[in-house]
Amino acid sequence: MIGIILQDISQERIASQCVCCGSIALYSSPAILMPFVAARTFGWYPAEIDDTWGLNSIKKGMAYSICNSLNCKKCGHLFLDIRFSDSEMAKLYSNYRGPDYVRLRESFESGYAVRNERLNHGVSFLDLVESFLIPYVSMPLTVLDWGGDTGVNTPFLKSAEKIDIYDISDKAVIEGVGRVSLEEAHNNKYKLVVCSQVLEHVSFPVDVIRSLKRCMDTNSILYIELPCENLIRASDEQANLAIRKKHWHEHINFYTKNSLQALLEYSNLTIVELRVAEVPMGESLVYIYQVAAKLK
Predict the structure, then answer these.
(1) Which one of 18, 136, 183, 224 is least enclosed by Cβ atoms within 10 Å?
(2) Cβ neighbours, 10 Å, residue 121
(3) Burial annotation 43-69 (CB, 10 A radius, 16+ → b, else e)
(4) How far is CA 216 from the centre of its chain?
(5) How far apart are CA 80 and CA 12, in angstroms?
(6) How far apart (Å, rounded) are the C-alpha atoms in residues 296 and 288?
(7) Are strands 284-295 and 247-248 parallel, antiparallel or unpaired?
């Protein structure tokens, strides 16, 4: 990729390198970790500092979990400096959007329970996903949906010969699909491997893609879907985005087109097609990256 020098990416607790291209040239700016994520992952809750604390040099007011926004000067990737461990990710995403998850999140974010109920009915743009993929896949189709939750949003539900779900949550899958362990997924080869709305959540996206590649052969297509965040869309490519990102929630990676290309190049994948698609969501539009890639 022109202009991107890919360096080895170390797995640090607090990142000092870009997690897509490995560059150490980063902008940094203070931010906060949103209370729901801090509470569910670390057991950290907001605190109000008042006179009873007896702190002479600290200003009174609400205290939240501090972190940093990092923005790669090479590929433009915008990300949280905290890189969650496997056990912390498990705390955050176990029984994802289940009763305990929803109850805690609703306590911090009024109205989330209603939004979650809408999400449980599945997305409304699977036809857009399938039309994007049809030129690159052939029947009979075998599908692995990595991070596919219950399978309700898996493409080709009605036409695929076999659909497997790998997910760290403990939810039961819908009828017609199967759940597989990581070992079982790695022991199979699928014509289509789906990684939809996952890589924005993970600490080390390169590791996830390496695992995905183990489920592929030279005839496989990897479909990656990611949010094209409004902050990315509205900003100049050369701008320092770290100073504009003041809070972090579950999405700990904000991808640019360049950072997504750098990540796939680092992972030794060939991009077949990459586009930004508009998706109607209620009365508004959201934007997503859609990527079809294959092994080099």
Answers:
(1) 183
(2) 8
(3) eeeeeeeeeeeeeeeeeeeebbbebbb
(4) 21
(5) 12
(6) 25
(7) unpaired
CA pair distance 187, 189, nearest whole angstrom? 7
Could you read off the pLDDT of 120-150 as tens digits, one per residue? 665 578 999 999 999 999 999 999 999 998 9
- pLDDT in the model for residue 119: 65
CB within 8 Å of 238: residues ≥ 6 apart: none
pLDDT single digits (tens) 1-43: 445 656 789 899 999 999 999 999 999 999 999 999 999 999 9
State pTM to two decimals: 0.93
By the 8 A CB rule, do 154 and 178 touch?
no
Which residue type occupies 240? N
143-173 burial, b at 16+ Cβ within 10 Å, e below that, comes to bbbbbbbbbbbbbbbeebeebbbbbebebeb
Phi-psi region of 34 (alpha: psi -120 to 50; beta: other; left: phi over 0): beta
Nearest to 197 by CA among 140, 244, 135, 153: 153
